């Protein structure tokens, strides 16, 4: 995988389980671009927060 902005190969990836799904934060070490994906599909931060919200 490479950064969609600068094409650098050096990325930090942090995967977490949220609501039974694997959501991964990708961060480019070169240009500081960040993006999330939900089991391979790119999603926006508000969608990640919605998944992580506990409904009472």
Describe the structure.
With 56 residues, this protein is mainly beta. It has one domain. It is 14% helix and 43% strand. It is built from one helix and four strands. It has a four-stranded antiparallel β-sheet with strand order 1-2-3-4, covered by helices on one side. A hairpin with a 5-residue loop joins β2 and β3 (34-38). The protein is elongated and about 40 Å long. The model has no long low-confidence stretch (mean pLDDT 93).
Radius of gyration: 12 Å
Q: How far apart are the first and last residues' alpha carbons, in Å?
A: 38 Å
Class by SSE composition: mainly beta
Quaternary assembly: single chain
Enumerate how many helices there are, as a single number.
Answer: 1
| Average pLDDT for all residues | 93
Biggest sheet layout: 4 strands, antiparallel
Number of strands: 4
């Amino acid at each position: 995988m490479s950064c969609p902005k600068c094409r650098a190969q050096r990325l930090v990836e942090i995967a977490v389980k949220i609501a039974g799904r694997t959501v991964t934060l990708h961060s480019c070490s070169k240009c500081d671009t960040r993006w999330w994906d939900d089991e391979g599909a790119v999603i926006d931060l508000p969608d990640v927060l919605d998944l992580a919200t506990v409904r009472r």
